[in-house]
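Comment thread on ticket #2218

A.B. wrote:
> Attaching the input chain for the structure job we discussed in standup.
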Amino acid sequence: MAARNLPPDWTELPDEELLSVRMSDLPLRIEGTVLEGRIKQLQAELEAHELNFPAHFYISSEWFTPDGTVSMAIPFYLAHPRLERLEKAQMLVVEGGDHDWCMRILRHEAGHVIDNQFKLRLKRRRRLIFGPSKIPYPEFYDPRPYSKSFVQHLDPWYAQAHPDEDFAETFAVWLTPESDWRVRYAGWPALAKLEYMDELMRGLRGKQPAVTSTQELDPLRSLRYSLRHHYRRRRRHHGLDRPEIYDAELRRLFSDAPEYANNMIAAQFLGKMRRPARRLVASWTGIHQYTIDRVFEDMIVRCKELKLRLAVPEEQARNEFTVLLTVQTMNYLHSGRHRMAM
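C.D. wrote:
> Ran it. Output below, let me know if you need it in another format.
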């Protein structure tokens, strides 16, 4: 358990010491951070559609919208740059860490809030088009990458996870300024969902919400466990504590043997080819680049841990690693390591 008194210089603590801090002791707020501006942008987008959106935003452990409320939980690490760096070190990626990504998630969660505010899941057409909300959430889901029955907004094909996520994803695409969704989804079965969403939201213009509860579930002040405990649980949930799964494949291209000591460091080599390889794999598979980058980062970290260096000609390494990245990204999606945040 972390100490109750947080030192004034807590932002200067090394990761190992910061991990001992109790989450409820973190002095965080939304006001005065980049989150404040992003929330204002979201509210402006909703106001442009004349939607009454008295949402309540608060800091918690991760992104979610408590059922039956107009509250939206935002993960703590987005409230301070030091915690973003810790998140990156622990989880390899900062979910919502840049402006565009954060706005995509905010629009998605706004879909859940709208759903709650107006009890939309009770509408017959809503259930017919998206499916019943009462279906249990899966621990993980098996996406169909080429399905055109779902919009593509958050990664990986999150609309396919559950009817409520399908609704929230469709709302987010509808809300996104200049998304040109009628053109983007022309000929897709998903277009019918967007047209229904447009009709539904037009009908809600200026209406007062039926639900106004701002109850908070798991606010940061109530999380009396350490950051270390939080990340241990999250890494286990997302399968990040099994770095050895890449070892055999990586050692076909890289080595820590003495005869390769003067060759390029594997992590440096992968860093150079990161962007083109990511784009190529995305074009081959249709998988979002954020998913590919998560797998890529995991393998780079493993190369550093194993102190690997290039062991084959560069051209061979580029070609074979691109194939390896494709296979491992597909494995990531189908092994349950893209488990849903529950």
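A.B. wrote:
> Thanks. Noting for the ticket: Strands lie at 56-60, 71-75, 254-255, 309-310.
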